[in-house]
Amino acid sequence: MALERTFSMIKPDATRRNLTGAITKMLEDAGLRVVASRRVWMSLRDAQGFYAVHKDRPFFAELTEFMSSGPTIVQVLEGENAIAKNREVMGATNPAQAAEGTIRKVHALSIGENSVHGSDAPETAAQEIRYWFSDTEIVG
Questions:
Q1: Is 117 among the catalytic positions?
Q2: Per the residue annotation, which of 5, 85, 107, 117 is the catalytic one?
Q3: Does the chain have fewer CB atoms within 10 Å around its N or its C terminus?
Q4: Quick check: is 33 in a domain?
Q5: Does pTM surpass 0.85?
Q6: DSSP readout, 39-88?
Q7: How many folded domains does the chain comprise?
Q8: How far apart, in whole angstroms, are the C-alpha atoms of residue 91 and residue 107?
């Protein structure tokens, strides 16, 4: 197994409902360690930059408006196979299809308001981490 880092975000629907601690606990209980964390309220421009990979998708405007509608928690997680572990703990994007006990099964309101975001690959993780954190802000 490989020790790696991944990016995780607690979205506005979850911060509005004061679920930051509950979600972070689920991540930590799964063996992931928070090595950087910050509460941000991203501007529409920040959201558009972060989700630029989706700019040609029909949901882009709705996504970026939602992501700039309230505070988010941006985090760097570390652990054995952290990317896969984080995605497992998050559950399927559609909470109705998410496995029991996953973040999205427990906390998501809908496909759009699904409480969390996580990197899907090492390259994506590196890019998303660099978007929000400098090397000196990540302390393991």
A1: yes
A2: 117
A3: N
A4: yes
A5: yes
A6: EE---HHHHHHHTGGGTTSTTHHHHHHHHTSS-EEEEEEEEETHHHHHHH
A7: 1
A8: 11
**What is the arrangement of strands in the sheet containing 72-80, beginning at the earlier edge strand?**
33-40, 72-80, 3-10, 116-118
Q: Phi and psi of 76, rounded to 5°?
A: -110, 125
93 in a known ligand binding site: yes
| Chain center to CA of 39 | 12
Residue 56 lies in a domain: no
**Residue 129 backbone phi and psi in degrees, to 5:** -60, -45
Q: Which DSSP state fits 95?
A: G
Query: Which pair of structure tokens corresponds to residue 31?
Result: 């063996």
pLDDT means over runs of 10, the chain (140 residues) = 91 98 98 98 97 95 96 98 98 97 97 96 97 93
How many residues in the chain?
140
- Any binding-site annotation on 11? yes
Query: Which DSSP state fits 26?
Result: H
Q: Are 11 and 90 in contact (CB under 8 A)?
A: no
User: Is residue 81 a known part of a binding site?
Assistant: no
- Amino acid symbol at 113: E
